[in-house]
Design goal:
175 residues; three-stranded antiparallel sheet; single chain; mainly alpha
Amino acid sequence: MLPLKFFTRPEIKPGLVLTERDRALVRWCYELRTADSVMLALLVDSSHDRAARRLHLLWAHEYLDRPHGQFFLKVKEEMRHAVYSLGREGARLIAEEDHLPFASLRWQYAKNHEAKDRYLKHTLEIAKFRAALTLALREENSTLILKRWISGMHLAKESVKGQRETDSGLPGWIF
């Protein structure tokens, strides 16, 4: 079970110089909505220990959040690794890098503390699938690339516009 301090940021923040790998960790949390530390380490090609240290720093500086719903998942399902999602400063970073209005990302980090264990489990399963697909496509002999991922938040917008086609003329995948 998680101690309450797991969700309490330190009063004095440790030093942080944002690296490219840090930016990648934040971006993956944005794209996946939620991800555990093992998944994130694999996606940025890092050891789990090194990634866990950076994730902790990013959380301490509010680039990432630790959704409270994981408390109940850890009790029920015996999850062992910390789960992260986009934090307020991470949303600012993504908005700046992608030239988006900050308000368009605000909903994502604002909902982190409201997310219940059921929603969290659902988004983690989707993230695991996407991570597995991404890692499989990185294999040396792979000639396939994942050009675009349409998540649930954008799926309704896409369906309103009509059936999308890929560059090959085939209908796009919808998960």
